[in-house]
Amino acid sequence: MAQMGAAGVIITEFEGIRCVRKILASRTEIGFYQQGAKALSGVNTPHLIAVQGRDLLIEYLPERLTLEQVNTCINTFEQLATIHRSDYQPQFELKAHQWPREASERALQTLQLPKRSQQSLRAIQQISAELFESDTLISGDSNHGNWGARHNGQRVLFDWERFGYGSPAIDLAPLVFDLGDISAYQTIVERYLRGGGIGEAESLIRHLIIAKAWLVVEVTNILQARNKPDAERYFNWYRQNLPAWLEQIENHF
Predict the structure, then answer these.
(1) Report field, pTM of the whole predicted structure over 0.85
(2) How confident is the prediction for the chain on average, in pLDDT?
(3) Topology at the third CATH level for domain 64-252
């Protein structure tokens, strides 16, 4: 989901401080930086510099991280686990995560997958409610593109417009390269549990598979709705790789 948000982002200066201006930030993200960030002790987030109307000005992070740097670092999972274990109850508007049937149909119309693949994706959607029934706080978008590092090496998670409730697996799914396979899911879940994560491995792997399928639908519909210039590249990749992946994971439900 990285770089697919509706808000515009520019690098600028404010009172002599280099910072990131997020234009027309969501109410969720503004609420997070004003209230939520300080309530999640142990989670590194960009410093809030100012809020100007619907614009957020936050700390600029000099170093972006690769997927490998993010998903092999135990601190990634420690920070996510801290979010998931938190008993903080936000008093601002959160992102309501869901996977309605209509979203699947829009994505399938775009992708034009084989009939068996369409049936598999619809079947996963039908059991997806369990992904969103949790009262666990989640970042909602832990994609490696949303991690940066300060000059002292401290890892920082930004882009909080999808902050809400759901299964911890929603925060694990973006850490798996491409669609992944069962072995990759097991590895990510093991790292998460070593970092203090919550839940049982078997359940987390099941939820991770559902979350991966859901992200395909989410990304497809966002790209289509916002006319992203590289949308067709993503669609073609899904057309080439989704059928085999869906067949591979069928036996795990």
Answers:
(1) yes
(2) 95
(3) Aminoglycoside 3'-phosphotransferase; Chain: A, domain 2 (3.90.1200)
